[in-house]
Specification:
It contains 21 helices and 20 strands.
Length: 572
């Protein structure tokens, strides 16, 4: 049975470190861990909290119910005590004036002063949590976890603080650890960054914008070891143009932002489209428009990124569904960008970006000629060179019209000819033209890529009954909550619920969608936006209509429990 813990307080009270150490200890004990962060856009004050869910089985969503609360201030008690089960506990300092029979008060401040450092109160709480949830205190594991999050000179005193907290309480729950010690615990943003490095990223440029900044921070922290140039650009426009320039010059390049920053990148996105320069862009969504809710989550950029930039050109849009997807789909994005010489847009969101999950260690094929190569030059199809030999037999044409719409791509400095690129319409050699005939030839050439791209789009994942009465449709980070919702619904009734969750969203894969529409009597669209953007896209592309919508756009993620409850309301 999963356990659900909330650690809450004001910004600056150390809830991040307390949560990070505790989830690390849970993972080391063998639990599957799923952590969600909810924080305000401020450095000090306000109310922040972190939800840690753990079990001896896989978890795919956060929960509305709480088995325990760590309250670093009174506001946390008042805001969240109604979510606490009758058997739950509220762990807090003696100074908290709130009253509840489920409160377990420890004089953490006094204990911390006795230990010689008032800032170790969070470690005292960590020790108490271990005991309350029935976990053994393993000193070696505690030391290893602490070394990741505090400076070396403070490790010993924090270990003593954990020991002190452990001795202050009695077990509240029984412990049933799992077997996930050897799995990874990683955030969505870090998984994207790791996927980019595995794909051979050599240039990352971005302007810091939450909640995408974590991608840049992770890549920057490994840049020297991995041979990556990370450029904190002066603005979003520069970040996009730098990535395009680096790709044109022959290295794998990527840029990242959130929706507001993507707005500024749009003109340069069109440049990548007409110049046929591969580039990967990640949009980590947050509620808009304008500044919106900068530290919250939403899925409101879908139709925007599909249609962004004036004119028409092929692109691929991939929504990341979970922490596994974030790694493997990022690698795939680079492959697709290079194969079709187009921009590939990854859609994440704050919920996935800032949450952490246990995942099976990522695997990459060491024989894959793509993964880890330093430059695009190493990935060029040598057929072109073999045909030409040491001396070119004809002039190189960067935009040669081909049946598939894909021209041989060289990089600047090639002995086979000038590698032209331009934002104007151009002929096969890359020279600017206003010829109507050439314009049609080049447009048709670029758009022909769509036919091949459609063949490579991955169908959505199917969850639940093979013969559903009710079909749910969602995309991106709703994958986990929808999976749990389907499980709850099927366990509570006639077991005739299913869901499909899109990862590849543009071009829209349709086989699984038609299968669900043919089998289910009722289709319900589930999205984190106000207008049902995926449902609208589905209707536009296929004529399939969802009879009902479950939408949420307050900046907070739908849980599996909430989706299940709202489905039941719809069916009434």
């Amino acid at each position: 049975m999963p356990r659900n813990l909330l650690i809450g307080g004001a910004a600056g009270q150390g809830i991040d470190t307390t949560a990070a150490v505790f989830e690390k200890l849970l993972k080391q004990a063998g639990y599957f861990v799923f952590t969600v962060r909810d924080f305000m856009s401020r450095v000090r004050g306000g109310h922040n909290f972190i939800l840690i869910r753990f079990a001896n089985e896989k978890i795919t969503s956060h929960s509305e119910q709480l088995d325990g609360i760590v309250a670093l201030n009174e506001e946390t008690v008042e805001l969240h005590k109604d979510r606490l089960t009758e058997q739950g506990f509220i762990l807090c300092d003696e100074s908290i004036a709130a009253s509840d029979e489920r409160m377990i008060k420890i004089d953490m401040q006094a204990l911390a002063k006795e230990l010689g450092n008032p800032r170790v109160a969070g470690s005292i709480a960590t020790g108490a949590l271990l005991r309350l949830f029935g976990l053994e205190l393993d000193h070696a594991q505690a030391e290893a976890a602490m070394k990741e999050f505090v400076k070396e000179q403070y490790v010993d005193i924090n270990i003593k603080a954990i020991e002190a907290g452990y001795g202050e309480v009695s077990p509240h729950y029984d412990s049933e650890p799992g077997d996930y010690q050897d799995w990874m615990l990683i955030s969505g943003n870090k998984a994207v960054g790791l996927g980019a490095l595995a794909a051979g990223l050599r240039f990352y440029s971005a302007y810091p914008m939450s909640p995408s900044t974590g991608v840049m921070e992770f890549i920057a922290s490994h840049a020297e070891a991995c041979g990556v140039v990370v450029e904190q650009a002066e603005d979003e426009i520069a970040g996009m143009n730098m990535a395009i320039g680096a790709s044109y010059a022959g290295v794998r390049a990527m840029t990242g932002t959130s929706g507001g920053g993507f707005c500024l990148k749009v003109e340069a996105l069109g440049l990548a489209g007409i110049a046929e320069i591969p580039v990967v862009v990640i949009d980590v969504q947050r509620p808009g428009p304008a500044t919106g809710l900068p530290t919250r989550t939403e899925q409101s950029d879908l139709k925007f990124v599909i249609n962004a930039a004036q004119g028409e050109f092929p692109r691929i849009v991939i929504a990341l569904r979970n922490h596994k997807d974030a790694f493997y789909q990022t690698i795939r994005a680079f492959k697709l960008a290079e194969q079709f010489q187009i921009p590939v847009i990854l859609l994440s969101d704050q919920y996935l970006a800032d949450s952490s999950s246990t995942v099976r260690p990522y695997q990459i094929d060491p024989l894959d000629p793509f993964v880890g190569h330093a430059t695009l030059a190493e990935m060029l199809d040598n057929t072109y060179f073999e045909e030409m030999g040491s001396e070119p037999k004809h002039a190189y044409k960067r935009y040669l019209v081909t049946d598939e719409g894909i021209s041989a791509r060289l990089y600047p400095g090639s002995k086979f000819g000038l590698v032209a690129a331009d934002s104007d319409e151009h002929d096969e050699e890359g020279r600017i033209t206003e010829s109507a005939e050439v314009r049609v030839q080049q447009m048709d050439k670029r758009m022909r890529k769509f036919e091949l791209i459609r063949q490579l789009m991955l169908e959505p994942e199917w969850q639940g009954s093979d013969r559903p009465k009710v079909g749910l449709i969602g995309w991106g980070s709703l994958s986990g909550p929808l999976r749990e919702a389907v499980q709850i619904l099927n366990e509570s009734g006639d077991k005739r619920f299913a869901a499909i969750v899109f990862g590849d969203v543009w071009p829209l894969p349709q086989e699984m969608l038609h299968k669900l529409a043919d089998r289910a009597e009722i289709l319900i669209d589930v999205e984190q936006n106000a207008t049902g953007q995926l449902a609208s896209l589905i209707r536009e592309q296929t004529g399939i209509t969802c009879q009902h919508h479950i939408l949420k756009y307050d900046g907070r993620q739908l849980s599996g429990e909430e989706i299940a409850a709202r489905v039941k309301e719809v069916l009434k």
